[in-house]
Amino acid sequence: MGETIFSKIIRKEIPADVVLETDTILAFRDINPQAPVHVLIIPKIDIPKVSDLKGCEHAQLLGEMIDVANKLAKEMNISEEGYRLVLNCGPNGGQEVYHLHMHLLGGRQMKWPPG
Ligand code: AMP
Questions:
Q1: What is the predicted pLDDT for the residue at 40?
Q2: Domain spans of the chain, in order of start
């Protein structure tokens, strides 16, 4: 098992501002928000990064993560204006925490290309 700060959040060993929890997924506000809405959506199982995913094995889990993102976007009133979902992978992708996570960002105009 990879041990990260997110593993500790899943086990409730350190606090987080949890906005949604299911049997398989935890969603909590990012500690260093980059937008008015910035939520991290993580699986409870240990998957370090996007490149460890296998479509056939993890399709259900990824679908659940998208469902959670869309549900939270509606609840947080950013659904109409739009939002961005980000999965950073590895050093060049800007990944800092090696437990798979999807960023839900919204509440402001996003720019392209990303930094
Ligand atoms: P990434 O760069 O894609 O790996 O994103 C990791 C994210 O985790 C960053 O946006 C951090 O601000 C966030 N983060 C790190 N520690 C915590 C924490 N204890 N609670 C909430 N978010 C955190």
A1: 99
A2: 5-106
Q: Which ligand 1 atom minimizes the distance to the CA of 16?
A: 20
Q: Is 101 a catalytic residue?
A: yes
Choosing among 3.30.428.10, 3.90.550.10, 3.40.33.10, 3.30.70.920, the CATH entry for 5-106 is: 3.30.428.10
pTM (2 d.p.): 0.98
Q: What is the pLDDT of residue 1?
A: 58
Atom of ligand 1 nearest to the CA of 97: 4
CA distances from 9 to 23, 83, 85, 90 (A): 15, 25, 21, 21
What's the gap between Cα 18 and its chain centre?
Answer: 12
pLDDT at 65 over 90: yes
Centroid of ligand 1 to alpha carbon of 96 (angstroms): 7
